[in-house]
Amino acid sequence: MGAYILRRLLLIIPTLLGIMIVNFVLVQFVPGGPIEQVIAQVQGQGDVFEGFAGGGADAGGESSTEGNDQYIGARGLPPEFIEQLEREFGFDKPPVERFFNMLWNYMRLDFGESYFRKIEVIDLIIEKLPVSVSLGLWSTLIAYLVSIPLGIRKAVGDGTRFDTWTSGAIIVAYAIPGFLFAILLLVLFAGGSYWNFFPLRGLTSDNWEELSLIGKIADYFWHITLPVLASTISAFATLTLLTKNSFLDEIKKHYVITARAKGLSERGVLYGHVFRNAMLIVIAGFPAVFIGVFFGGSVIIETIFSLDGLGRMGFEAAVARDYPIIFGTLFIFGLIGLIVGILSDLMYVLVDPRIDFEKREG
C-alpha cells in the first residue's frame, strides 16, 4: 500500500501542473484584465465591462496593439501611469516568465497579495475557510445521518409503498436546483412572503460578541440552518439511492442466503453480515462527498445567503480579475481535491482491509 500511496502522491505534481497551465492559458484570452479594471475606476466608469467596446485583452490586459493605447479606455491617461500599473501587477514581463514565477512562489507557499484588497491571499483563504468548511461539513453529516437509515429502510422494503413514495420525493429533491431551493427557503422562512423564522443573511448576529457561550452556539445554528438545508438536498438524494442500491446488491448474494438458512434473524443478517459490505462504498465516499458539497454549491449558496466564505470570495475575485486570488485558490483547491482522492482510497482499505490497490494495478 505504501508504494501505491507514493505513486499517487507523485502524480499530484504533473496533475496540478496541468491544471495550472490550462487555466493560465485560458485566462490569457479573457477580456477585461485588472489594469482595465483600475482604468475604469479611475475614469469613473465603476466597472471595466461598462466601457468595454471590443477587442481582446489577456490576463495582463494586453491586446494585439502596441503601446499604452492597448488598454481600452486608457486614452487621456499618462503613459507613466499605465507603465506603473504594469509593474505593480507584474505585467511588464512575458506570460511564460510570469507563469514560472508564479509556480516558484507557490512551491514556497507564497501565494502573493490580492490586487485590490491589499492582503495576502493565504490570509484571505484562512479568514474565509471556516465558513465554507462549516457549511460543507454540516451538509455532509446531515446527508449521511438521513440517507443511510432511509436507504437501508428502502432496501429492506423494496417495492413497498414506503419505497415508492420516498423514491418519488427523492427524485423531486434531486431535480430541484440548489439555488432555487435556497430562494424558496428564503421566501418561506426568512421574511419573504410567509414566515420570518430565520435570519436573511450572515453566519452570526450583530451582537455575537455580547452573547453567552450557549447563546453563541444557538445563534450559529440559527443562522446556518437554511444554508445547510439548501446545500444538502442534492447530496441527500444521491446518497439515499446509493445506500439502497448497495444494500440491494448485497442482499441478493449467496452468503446472505446461507446466513438465513442457518437460522439467523433478518436483523442479524442485515447488520451482522450485509451492513459492512454494503456500507463500504458509502463510507469510503465520505471525503469525496464532502469536497463535492464544499466546492459544488458553495458559490451559489454563499452568495444567496450573504455568507463570507471561499465560494463567494472566488466569485468576486473572478469578476474583479483579481488573479492572485483566482490562481491561489485554484492551486489550493486542486491540491485538496487530489489529496482527498487518495484519502478516499485509504478509506476503502480502512473499511475493508481485503482491498489491495497495488495488486489491482499489477
UniProtKB/TrEMBL annotation:
<feature type="domain" description="ABC transmembrane type-1">
    <location>
        <begin position="129"/>
        <end position="348"/>
    </location>
</feature>
<keyword id="KW-0813">Transport</keyword>
<feature type="transmembrane region" description="Helical">
    <location>
        <begin position="325"/>
        <end position="351"/>
    </location>
</feature>
<dbReference type="Pfam" id="PF00528">
    <property type="entry name" value="BPD_transp_1"/>
</dbReference>
<protein>
    <submittedName>
        <fullName>Microcin C transport system permease protein</fullName>
    </submittedName>
</protein>
<dbReference type="InterPro" id="IPR000515">
    <property type="entry name" value="MetI-like"/>
</dbReference>
<feature type="transmembrane region" description="Helical">
    <location>
        <begin position="280"/>
        <end position="305"/>
    </location>
</feature>
<feature type="transmembrane region" description="Helical">
    <location>
        <begin position="9"/>
        <end position="30"/>
    </location>
</feature>
<comment type="similarity">
    <text>Belongs to the binding-protein-dependent transport system permease family.</text>
</comment>
<keyword id="KW-0472">Membrane</keyword>
<keyword id="KW-1133">Transmembrane helix</keyword>
<feature type="transmembrane region" description="Helical">
    <location>
        <begin position="164"/>
        <end position="190"/>
    </location>
</feature>
<dbReference type="GO" id="GO:0055085">
    <property type="term" value="P:transmembrane transport"/>
</dbReference>
<keyword id="KW-1003">Cell membrane</keyword>
<dbReference type="InterPro" id="IPR035906">
    <property type="entry name" value="MetI-like_sf"/>
</dbReference>
<keyword id="KW-0997">Cell inner membrane</keyword>
<feature type="transmembrane region" description="Helical">
    <location>
        <begin position="133"/>
        <end position="152"/>
    </location>
</feature>
<dbReference type="GO" id="GO:0042884">
    <property type="term" value="P:microcin transport"/>
</dbReference>
<feature type="transmembrane region" description="Helical">
    <location>
        <begin position="220"/>
        <end position="243"/>
    </location>
</feature>
<dbReference type="GO" id="GO:0005886">
    <property type="term" value="C:plasma membrane"/>
</dbReference>
<keyword id="KW-0812">Transmembrane</keyword>
